[in-house]
Amino acid sequence: MPTGNIELLFSRSGSAYTGEKQGLASLSSALLNEGTKELGATKFADLLEQDAITLHAYSTKEFLEISLSFLKEKQAQSLKLLGDLLKSPNLTKNTLEKLQKQTISSILANESNFDYLANLGLSQILFANTPLQYPAIGTIPSVKSITLDQIKEHLSSSLSLKRLSIIIGGDMDIDSTLQELSNILSTLPIGNKPALTAYQANSTTQTKTQYKPTEQAYIYFGTPFHLKNYKEEAHKAKVMSFILGASGFGSRMMETIRVKHGLAYSAYMRINLSPLANYATGYMQTKISNQTQSIQLVREIIEEFVKNGATQEELDGAKNFLLGSEPLRNETLSQRLDSAFANYNRGLELDYNKIELQKIQDLTLKELNDYIKSHKEILELSFSIITE
């Protein structure tokens, strides 16, 4: 069935760019899902539903994003509704109060989500005194304190042309669609685009323990990861991450902690690469009686990995999976568009994934192990633990 997909991405507009006003980006994007001031949430949603149009706004750490998908025959109506939303979002006191109540309910629910609490504790260690230490959803006091004027100000600066990137794909005429979008977006201010802020994970090892009524220990851990040149190093970092803990079964973490020692149902560790921050994180859940042994085992696994590197068998397995699963990572239009934009956002060729796959194919064991052994910073482990 012929469909179209349009994404408007406003950079430097996510939770990492709202200072200490926790939850502002999240609440602002939520308000964009409440229809227009003239129609309200319900009537606007009815118009979308009757024509099978999906229009949704959300925020990440870096972006405020608006996603629009539609059947080809409904393109004109879809673009009209997008224009109506941008021109007159439902920025009213009643809508804000409703969303504040919903957000506070979610925050309260998170208080019994031990995975969430352990992960948040890890962020507070790795990125202390930066915007990345805060929960994107905010806290109860911060959400209560957000005013309609603050949201208007945030949306006014975020929804601006200098911050905008447009992703278009599907069965449509690109040139005429861009012309239609140009007419719609001409109402937005030119604005300004703040400089990209990048953060370094804390190298001072720390352990934060929270005591809760739980029968399991939730153990989250993380380290800095130093990446000098994404284009030259990312393929090595991805293979390194896959072998150490990102691949699940077969990885060092899973094979040692679950298969050999039976200490946890699952254990993962992955290297996270983004323009905002590069770092490694991992987690596992185990019996409280196994907590100390499990933490020590994590340290030993990483120490041995940095000291001796990977085996040829592990490298071959990583290559087979990463090369073989690439079609699945680009199966849908949305996946292909997101992949192309991620490359564009890093200043790479849009089809850089193909180049990277060839680099993975050509990677030798010596090159990989030299790379692994050069990253001694992953020994600087910090832990966030929820236990009884």
- Can you tell me the overall shape? globular
Low-confidence stretches: none
Distance between the termini: 53 Å
Order of helices and strands: EHHEEHHHHHEHEEEHHEEHHHHHHE
Strand count, sense and closure of the main sheet? 6 strands, mixed
Radius of gyration of CA atoms, rounded to a whole number? 23 Å
The average pLDDT score comes to 96
User: In total, how many domains does the architecture comprise?
Assistant: 2
Task: Estimate what percentage of residues fall within beta strands.
Answer: 15-25%
CATH class of the largest domain: Alpha Beta
CATH topology of the largest domain: Cytochrome Bc1 Complex, Chain A, domain 1
The helix count comes to 16
Give the class from helix and strand content and strand pairing: alpha+beta
What is the CATH-assigned architecture of the largest domain? 2-Layer Sandwich
CATH homology superfamily of the largest domain: Metalloenzyme, LuxS/M16 peptidase-like
Helix content percent band: 40-55%
What attributes characterize this protein structure?
2 domains; alpha+beta; 388 residues; 4-stranded antiparallel β-sheet; Cytochrome Bc1 Complex, Chain A, domain 1; 6-stranded mixed β-sheet
Please outline the helices and strands.
Layout: E1 3-10, H1 24-31, H2 40-50, E2 54-59, E3 64-71, H3 75-87, H4 93-110, H5 114-126, H6 140-145, H7 148-158, E4 164-170, H8 174-185, E5 199-200, E6 207-211, E7 216-224, H9 230-246, H10 252-260, E8 264-273, E9 277-287, H11 291-308, H12 312-324, H13 326-329, H14 333-345, H15 352-362, H16 365-373, E10 382-387
Helix pairs in contact: 1-7, 3-8, 9-15, 9-16, 10-11
